[in-house]
Design goal:
The protein is an all-alpha fold. Helices cover 81% and strands 0% of the residues. It is built from six helices and no strands. The protein is globular, with a radius of gyration of 18 Å. The model has no long low-confidence stretch (mean pLDDT 84).
């Protein structure tokens, strides 16, 4: 693989992760607040929330001198779940219970990984209201 191809692939990967953290994650977390607004307003609010969110997480981790990939990814995921549940009025106890039950089945061997992922996505869609039944 040439160096040019490698640089392009790395750039695309970084762009995809940055877009996910600054646009997709806030769109999920602040869904209730963004509902009913125009697409331009949603884009600008997600971009602002996402950048503010990631800048403050990095600042906090650097301040505590524990900044690395795993702490950044872990804290981003945990805070996203907590903030998203709080904004969308989903009890943290309900989220934790569903996740604990799913991981328990997975670890006991009563459910395969593919089924656990599908059930997890279904529960996520059901809780956050993305699945519309007719």
């Amino acid at each position: 693989m040439s160096m040019t191809t490698l640089v392009i692939l790395r750039f695309l990967g970084i762009f995809a992760v940055y877009t996910g953290v600054t646009l997709a994650l806030p769109a999920l977390m602040f869904r209730r607040i963004l509902r009913g607004r125009s697409l331009a307003e949603q884009f600008l609010m997600c971009y602002t929330f996402g950048n503010f969110y990631i800048i403050n997480i990095v600042f906090l981790l650097q301040l505590l001198h524990i900044s690395n990939f795993f702490t950044l990814a872990g804290l981003t995921a945990v805070l996203s779940i907590v903030i998203g549940g709080r904004v969308n009025r989903i009890p943290l106890k309900q989220q934790a219970g569903n996740t604990w039950h799913l991981f328990g089945k997975l670890l006991r061997g009563r459910m395969k990984l593919k089924s656990a992922i599908l059930v997890g996505f279904y529960n996520f869609n059901l809780i956050y209201g993305y699945l519309h039944t007719v």
